[in-house]
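Quick entry between incubations.
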Amino acid sequence: MDNIKVIIEKCTGCKLCVKKCPFGAVELVDKKAVIRDNCNLCGACAEACKSGAIEITRKVIHADLSAYKGVWVFAEQKEGRIMPVTFELLGEGRKLADKLGTELAAVYIGEKTQGIAEELFAYGADKAYIAGSPLMGLYRNEFYARVLTRLVTEYKPEIVLVGATVIGRSLAPSVAARIKCGLTADCTGLEIDTEKKILMQTRPAFGGNIMATIISPNHRPQMATVRPRVMKRIAKQAGRKGEVVTVDPKISAEDAVVEILKIIKPEEQVVDLQEADIIVSGGRGIGKAENFSLIRELAETIGGAVGASRATVDAGWIPSYHQVGQTGKTVCPKLYIACGISGQVQHLVGMQGSDVIVAVNKDPSAPIFNVATYGIVGDLFEVVPLLVKKFKEALK
Ligand SMILES: Cc1cc2nc3c(=O)[nH]c(=O)nc-3n(C[C@H](O)[C@H](O)[C@H](O)COP(=O)(O)OP(=O)(O)OC[C@H]3O[C@@H](n4cnc5c(N)ncnc54)[C@H](O)[C@@H]3O)c2cc1C
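Done. Structure below.
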């Protein structure tokens, strides 16, 4: 247990600790600091104390790391269909497992289970834990977190990967908190330190200005969420075999704390940028909302989806689900056309994995040209209509 104590002889009654405590957990009694029960051992008081009168002892619990083996991927599903991020994570998980010389397993929780394991094997899993139940059709945090926590505790994987989707962002921290391990959210790179056999988890930090590599040397499993479309799936190997572990979710309807009354799907057909092979994006350079018609026309001509920079979303020119970048979607299309986008790092982290990038910008020094495969220096109001014309002619 962590512990905090005041060394009375050293305390000068200066009150610095009282002022610094964010929780009001330090008070002065007879001119000496006293720590109250609501202290959460954050250490702010000890740091502030100039006379070294507050001492915190922290007990680092080292898990038996050798007991943890294997790489796991949470196989996210919607309406019984495995989500594409699962295949991407299996592709990455396969590489990590091979480097560690261990097996790759997928954990599926859902109602429909037929054919699921075979699909997971075809994309690289050696083993599939299948927890099927009519109660598991729709995502409910408390059910899914309980099942995954129980499996992780029982089978002890060394790495657990979850998609940084709406579901994954709810599930992964719930599980990590229950098993008291760390979690690196929104990773864009995963590697194995072959010497220490630990997972190096890289993600943008400080507004995308640095890439931080995070390790979890003392605890297991090493848990990470990874954004969709960041990792590449491996080619499907139909007929590839693996081991199926059928799991009883041990959940009953009475365990529910949330009742799902109705699923309301959006009326407007929301673009699925992450699935699009071609994206044409508009930035502040388009000038006003109405000019998105130009971007839409180019996108429609070549069968693409419309993307946007945050500047245009913030200006209210286009809904936020079109936004590409750090606080938007990460996309990886075959072709990404950026029109009037400067190429700030927060935009680039969301699209620089695209196969071919075409940038249209009137400023030749715009940073977007640093990542562009083809750069067109020019006014987008001239270039985009020309592109539309040429594509229409070519596609006739
Ligand atoms: C924490 C944080 C998260 C963020 N997340 C995101 C994110 O997810 N996605 C994102 O996009 N941004 C994000 N941003 C904002 C980001 O820093 C930039 O402000 C934003 O990307 C700029 O958008 P833009 O390129 O459209 O606009 P600008 O930077 O203003 O660039 C407009 C460009 O258009 C060009 N231009 C102007 N007129 C024309 C013309 N007629 N023809 C051709 N070119 C023209 C200009 O030369 C300029 O390069 C984030 C910022 C922060 C701090």
